[in-house]
Design brief:
The complex is a heterodimer of chains A (112) and B (113).
Chain A (H helix, E strand, L loop, with lengths): L3 E4 L2 E4 L5 E7 L5 E7 L5 E9 L2 E4 L6 E3 L9 E3 L8 E8 L7 E2 L3 E5 L1
Parallel strand pairs in A: 2-11
Antiparallel strand pairs in A: 1-3, 3-8, 4-5, 4-9, 5-6, 7-8, 9-10, 9-11
Chain B lengths: L3 E2 L4 E5 L4 E7 L4 E9 L6 E7 L4 E4 L2 E6 L4 E6 L8 E9 L7 E2 L3 E6 L1
Classes of the chains: A mainly beta (112), B mainly beta (113).
């Protein structure tokens, strides 16, 4: 049981490039989330999903897109990378909104 | 706008003593609160939670206190151990369905052996 896995661990992007951050969970959780954590700040919710085919915006969705074609996977897409997207990105999953969220180890992204 | 605040970025405590981590919030609609612990290069892991119908919840060495009138919660760790050295985040969720958690900025706890 791997829990929540994220790839890659670290990536450097040039301004304007695109990439997909991968997230997978093997706990059969319906709810999945993407957060970003900037230095000295708390985690901010980017997007979340309540099940396959259903996604919704969180607090800071601009510049990102998501899809949820399966229960297990919840990729986060950056279309035109900007320096403001330099951050650590965490994926999480849970049974329900009010339940404990299980986090992946994070992806550190640097946009130069 | 930071709705959940942890005003102490760091805290150092001697092993065996009590660690008290504080968290303040501004939204009176928050009714469920959690504490997460995060080690370097890892994701946060759940520690303890409390709902607004309680003012205290205890789990082993960890106790969370909630003061709704002051919009304040605190995490007490007794006794503190070197393995408790980590960053601690508080998080809060408003009542109703389909809402999100709001996280504080974190407090880095160092327990000195």
């Amino acid at each position: 049981n791997a829990g929540v896995t994220q790839t890659p661990k670290f990536r450097i992007l040039k301004i304007g490039q695109s990439m997909t951050l991968q997230c997978a969970q093997d706990m059969n959780h319906n709810y999945m989330y993407w957060y970003r954590q900037d230095p000295g700040m708390g985690l901010k919710l980017i997007y979340y999903s309540v099940g396959a085919g259903i996604t919704d915006k969180g607090e800071v969705p601009n510049g990102y897109n998501v899809s949820r074609s399966t229960t297990e996977d919840f990729p986060l897409r950056l279309e035109l990378a900007a320096p403001s997207q330099t951050s650590v990105y965490f994926c999480a999953s849970s049974w329900d909104f009010s339940e404990t969220q299980y986090f992946g180890p994070g992806t550190r992204l640097l946009v130069l | 706008d930071q709705q959940v605040k942890q005003n102490s970025p760091s805290l150092s405590v001697q092993e065996g003593r009590i660690s008290i981590l504080n968290c303040d919030y501004t939204n009176s609609m928050f009714d469920y609160f959690l504490w997460y612990k995060k080690y370097p290069a890892e994701g946060p892991t759940f520690l303890i939670s409390i709902s607004s119908i309680k003012d205290k919840n205890e789990d082993g060495r960890f106790t969370v206190f909630l003061n709704k009138s002051a919009k304040h919660l605190s995490l007490h760790i007794v006794p503190s151990q070197p393995g408790d050295s980590a960053v601690y985040f508080c998080a809060a969720m408003p009542s109703g369905t389909g809402n999100q958690f709001y996280f504080g900025t974190g407090t880095s706890l160092t327990v000195i052996p």
